[in-house]
């Protein structure tokens, strides 16, 4: 009997002591598995999650907790030392101490091993008598678990040069190392001169991928898709697989062999005890496997971990913390209650073919948890690139596809895919004239009349509009432009279109199809014609992000009077010297918050929060000084109610619990959070739902004033100190709020518990 038990183990945010950040990682893609005495531990591309084997409690460890990986390649838990070792593609070794939740980064391989950076990948860990033998793309490096220090490095090439080592094991007093180029090499583990390449001999000159010791047997996996047992000078084929063997592992008296479609488990006598093909009839791709307490755990590429009992192989359970479908989130859309995510995978040149016309669905975080629309349900739409919601009805979403047109989703159900076949003569066009299927819609926007505008890439240089009547229209904006980034609409219904190589285009059909072009062909124009990001602030300024930095159009009304309006850099003073803000930085996204501050994402330099005029840099978040998992920002959006700022990167999504919400019309919706403030909380208290420039005063119960501020936007933050001098003590504090003209007031309370 087969019992399906698929459930979500984790919902919402994962906070560390820094309560200002939230995590929204995907845990679907399992890279490797390991285990402690009481937990199964799974490594994803850039995080860990583990499940208690007794009470099924789940723990996640990611950048919010200090785990800042590059790209995880392998993982190993040392039960004797209570530490998990995490290997990365660049040679970074991360150590997670389960006793105190401490994360330690060891950069010795990155900084000290004298080989090219491109061959420092960590492939495998093997622990023996307090030492870990780290297999890398250059050889073997020894790590001492007691001292957490690196030891010798073994270059075991035929002439002592670096060579790729995929896996090691120890068997009958020898350490064996598998290389893809020079076969299997071995040396006596007692040899004090393992650093000398002459100490290593050729054990087998064939082509091998993995090696392990199980019971009295030494086994290896070959590039011929076979598993072999070594015996004296001969080999015996045990199994032949239909696909390449990804890894072999010997633990807890079992040997597991993983291919993309099948997992095999053998006992110590090399008798096959399980052969697992596709589970539930799904087309799963397996990545790793191991046996713990007679339970077989299988890591998958898209569905987390599957577990089955070797004594009852018809019973399966699926374990995966809730999150988006994948970590590389290409575009997001935040509302007061929901967060939409799509996973387009177009490259910096807007080429959808670079990543193989990605086939991913849609993820949506709702008050009830994560909800997914799988690729099978999106009507064949690939490379999804942009989400917009119909004004006044967020149950209707339009999602651009950089290959398939525009997907319409109503009440979370895809109902129509607009392309060249169903939008009429003036509708969507293919990228190439007379082409088929390739309809590239990278960005969408609604105008003030609720018409939907779309950039339609291709040689025609056209943008399209779906009128509220259901009719399509096409407008030619510039010869030779064939790739677009952002499109935004201003208060005059002017469409501002960012092109990849022709600069910025302004267009308004209500002014006799007027067009203007802002580029690098004239003084005070753009620094470069690759314009990616656009945003209009509350003072009608257009912020322009390019591959070479930032420019501002001081007033969008210049569209009506100037053919080539000047755009200005933001000049700031650094140590008394004038400098251009974000000089030569590749600006990827600009978002304006409720206080008219600008969140500016970049490729390579993280995120900047600047003041309304850009003269003051309030925050600069990077991977080094914040939980950002990457310095390459793909998208930014803001929850208009809470001010939470979401950052989508190429390696996961996190959020900053900002305090800049849009102002309210009155004080009827004022609320305070958190309330009460408990001892473990280290963030600020937010008073939200305010009108603009509302006055907020906080006193203790005896009436002593401890804080006062005027709101900029809809939220004020209090750091729970008395004007920054000292932390206030436990007690109830009164919050007195008045609108700017004092015509409306409100009183709230907050309890502080120290």
Could you describe the 3D structure shown?
- This protein is an all-beta fold and 754 residues long.
- Among the domains are: 329-442, no CATH class; 671-752, Immunoglobulin-like.
- It has one helix and 65 strands.
- The strands form 17 sheets. It has a five-stranded mixed sheet, with no helix packed on it. A four-stranded antiparallel sheet has the order 2-58-57-56, with no helix packed on it.
- A hairpin with a 2-residue loop joins β21 and β22.
- The longest helix has 5 residues, at 108-112.
- The two termini are 54 Å apart.
| Protein structure class | mainly beta
Number of helices: 1
Can you tell me the overall shape?
A: globular
Number of distinct beta strands = 65
Strand numbers in spatial order across the main sheet = 1-30-29-28-27
| Mean pLDDT level | 93
Radius of gyration: 29 Å
Q: What helical percentage do the residues reach?
A: under 10%
How far apart lie the N and C ends?
A: 54 Å
Low-confidence stretches: 1-18
Strand content: over 45%
Sheet with the most strands, sense and barrel status = 5 strands, mixed
Summarize the structure.
The chain has 754 residues and is mainly beta.
Q: What is the fold's blueprint, element by element?
A:
Blueprint: E1 3-8, E2 21-24, E3 32-35, E4 39-43, E5 48-52, E6 58-61, E7 72-78, E8 83-88, E9 93-97, E10 102-106, H1 108-112, E11 122-128, E12 131-136, E13 140-144, E14 149-154, E15 167-171, E16 174-178, E17 184-188, E18 201-204, E19 208-214, E20 217-222, E21 226-231, E22 234-240, E23 245-251, E24 254-259, E25 263-266, E26 272-276, E27 286-292, E28 295-300, E29 305-309, E30 312-320, E31 331-334, E32 339-342, E33 362-366, E34 369-373, E35 384-390, E36 393-401, E37 405-410, E38 413-418, E39 441-446, E40 452-456, E41 462-466, E42 472-476, E43 484-489, E44 495-499, E45 504-508, E46 514-518, E47 531-536, E48 542-546, E49 549-553, E50 571-574, E51 577-580, E52 587-592, E53 598-602, E54 607-610, E55 617-621, E56 633-638, E57 644-649, E58 652-657, E59 671-673, E60 685-688, E61 695-699, E62 705-710, E63 715-718, E64 731-738, E65 745-752
């Amino acid at each position: 009997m087969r019992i399906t038990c698929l459930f979500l183990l984790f919902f919402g945010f994962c906070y560390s002591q820094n309560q200002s950040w939230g995590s929204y990682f995907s845990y679907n893609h399992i890279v490797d598995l390991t285990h402690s005495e009481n937990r199964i531990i799974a490594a994803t591309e850039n995080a860990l999650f583990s499940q208690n084997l007794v009470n099924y409690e789940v723990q996640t460890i990611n950048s919010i907790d200090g785990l800042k990986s590059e790209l995880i390649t392998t993982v190993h838990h040392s039960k004797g030392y209570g530490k998990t070792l995490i290997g990365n593609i660049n040679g970074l070794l991360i150590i997670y101490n389960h006793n105190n939740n401490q994360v330690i980064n060891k950069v010795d391989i990155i900084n000290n091993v004298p080989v090219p950076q491109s061959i420092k990948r960590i492939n495998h860990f093997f622990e023996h008598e307090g030492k870990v033998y780290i297999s890398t793309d250059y050889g073997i490096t020894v790590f001492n678990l007691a001292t957490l220090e690196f030891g010798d490095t073994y270059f075991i090439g035929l002439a002592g040069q670096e060579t790729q080592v995929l896996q090691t094991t120890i068997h009958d007093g020898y350490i064996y190392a598998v290389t893809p180029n020079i076969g299997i090499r071995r040396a006596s583990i007692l040899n004090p001169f393992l650093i000398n390449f002459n100490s290593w001999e050729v054990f087998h000159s064939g082509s091998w991928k993995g090696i392990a010791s199980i019971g009295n047997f030494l086994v290896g996996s070959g590039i011929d898709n076979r598993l072999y047992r070594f015996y004296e000078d001969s080999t015996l084929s045990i199994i032949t697989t239909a696909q390449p063997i990804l890894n072999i592992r010997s633990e807890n008296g079992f040997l597991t062999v993983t291919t993309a479609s099948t997992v095999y488990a053998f006992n110590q006598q090399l008798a096959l005890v399980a052969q697992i093909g596709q589970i539930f009839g799904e087309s799963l791709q397996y990545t790793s496997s191991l046996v713990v307490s007679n339970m077989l755990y299988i890591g998958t590429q898209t569905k987390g971990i599957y577990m089955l009992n070797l004594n009852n192989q018809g019973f399966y359970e699926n374990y995966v913390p809730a999150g988006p479908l994948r970590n590389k989130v290409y575009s997001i859309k935040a509302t007061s209650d929901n967060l939409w995510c799509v996973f387009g995978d177009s490259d910096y040149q807007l080429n959808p073919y670079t990543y193989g016309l990605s086939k991913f669905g849609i993820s949506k975080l709702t008050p009830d948890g994560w909800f997914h629309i799988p690729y099978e349900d999106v009507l064949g739409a690939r490379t999804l690139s942009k989400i917009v919601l119909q004004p006044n009805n967020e149950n209707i979403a339009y999602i651009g596809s950089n290959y398939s047109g525009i997907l319409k989703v109503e009440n979370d159900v895809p109902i129509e895919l607009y392309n060249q076949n169903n939008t009429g003569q003036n509708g969507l066009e293919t990228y190439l004239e007379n082409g088929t299927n390739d309809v590239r819609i990278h960005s969408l926007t609604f105008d003030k009349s609720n018409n939907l505008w779309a950039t339609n890439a291709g040689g025609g240089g056209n943008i399209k509009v779906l009128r509220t009547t259901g009719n399509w229209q096409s407008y030619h904006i510039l010869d030779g432009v064939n790739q677009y980034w952002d499109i935004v609409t201003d208060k005059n219904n002017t469409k501002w279109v960012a092109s990849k190589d022709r600069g910025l285009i302004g267009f308004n059909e209500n002014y006799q199809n007027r067009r203007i072009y802002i580029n690098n062909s004239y003084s005070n124009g753009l620094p470069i014609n690759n314009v990616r990001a656009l945003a209009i602030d509350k003072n009608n300024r257009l912020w322009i992000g390019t591959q070479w930095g930032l420019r501002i159009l001081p007033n969008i009304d210049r569209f009506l009077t100037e053919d080539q309006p000047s755009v200005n850099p933001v000049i700031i003073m650094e140590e008394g010297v004038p400098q251009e803000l974000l000089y030569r930085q590749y600006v990827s996204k600009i978002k304006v918050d409720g206080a008219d501050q600008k969140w500016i994402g970049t490729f390579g330099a993280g995120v900047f929060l600047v003041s309304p005029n850009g003269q003051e840099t309030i925050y600069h978040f990077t991977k080094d000084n914040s939980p950002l998992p990457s310095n390459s920002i793909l998208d930014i959006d803001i929850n208009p109610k809470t001010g939470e700022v979401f950052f989508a990167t190429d390696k996961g999504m996190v959020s900053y619990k900002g305090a800049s919400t849009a102002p309210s019309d009155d004080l009827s919706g004022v609320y305070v959070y958190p309330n009460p403030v408990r001892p473990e909380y280290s963030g600020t208290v937010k008073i939200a739902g305010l009108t603009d420039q509302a006055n907020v005063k906080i006193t203790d119960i005896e009436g002593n004033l401890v804080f006062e501020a005027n709101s900029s936007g809809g939220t004020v933050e209090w750091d729970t100190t008395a004007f920054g001098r000292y932390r206030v003590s436990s007690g109830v504090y009164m919050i007195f709020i008045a609108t700017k003209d004092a015509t409306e007031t409100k009183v709230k309370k907050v309890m502080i518990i120290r």
